[in-house]
Amino acid sequence: MSGMYVAKESGITFNPALTPTTTPNKQAFVKAFKDNFTYEVMEHPNPHELVFSLKNVDVSFANALRRVMISEVPTVAIEIVYIDNNTSITHDEVLSHRLGLIPLDVDPEEFEFYSKGATTSIGDDNTNDHNTVVFKMDVYCPSRPPSNSELDSTKIILPPDLESVSTSDSDALARDVAHKHTARGKGELPNRPYTKHVYSRDLIWCPEGDQETRLKRKPKVVEGDILITKLRQNQRITLTCHARKSTGKDHAKYSPVATASYRMKPVVELKERVFDEDADRLVVLEPGVFEIREVKGVTGKKREAVMVNEYVCTMSRNFMRDPYLKDVVVISRDPNHFIFSVETVGMLTAVEVLKKSLVVLREKAENLAKEIKAVKEGRERGESM
Predict the structure, then answer these.
(1) pTM
(2) Residue 357 is inside which H or E element, if any?
């Protein structure tokens, strides 16, 4: 249904359009959608954040796209943890749960969905290098902190944004990072036992089968500094993880997004120009939407409120506290124009999530069309018999 959501003192009301928007046939509807639909990228500050707008689409399409992003885009996450040794204070169940929530940088397109087979002592019959990624961890806390010579020889894996630094700088940075993550320093209490922090970077990928040569993207954790647990002296964790491909419908750890939401585009209008003290109040009541500009050519007026960014309007209705502004400012929302905000957890980029979501949505529509066609053909056969 076409219309506008308008902010009033009593709340948000919907004013439907006077003319119907329903097209008479399928061909005309598809043509109208293709002709009127527009897509625009509004913000893309980094690979994992994206703000875009969809115009001239129904809310059902926008909500379907949001739901697919959250729960139907495949990713790879740790599913099974085989714990050989765990003498830490963290229970096996808690440790396994924390490992499962660590985002993995694994291309799901290079793996198949896992289908369960007969269970054996080492897994099940269907576990193979095409549906499972293996990570191992073996961490031990010694009775004393590492010495300076041990720290200097410690190999630190730098994040991608630091790989371009010079050799001397990287060596100094590696030593600094190693020192930072030890328990020594000004904050160390006298006679306090040494504590070793176990991070997500301690998960090491173990290639199986032909994964070493087949995989274009080598599996690893997205962020290496996620704290998993802490060990005291002589405590040890030894385990093996099996990561598999699935979707957010199975478990939230497979969801590629931290945020996937949309809102209808705000529409802000002024019935008349707002000057001087009234303009100052409007800028305060609706921050970011209006700004003050100098007025020329209007007798007795110095400043004017000019709308600069209606996208940041929150439909707050604060302007209605002012007896003058409530009759001058009109704020509404366009129900056919949506602003999406997508932020991923790192397993996929925001653009990849959007593309894969559209592919899934298209497949759903094609499957529905096939089912409808099959039902019609079945009815026709039944009537002819």
Answers:
(1) 0.78
(2) helix 350-384
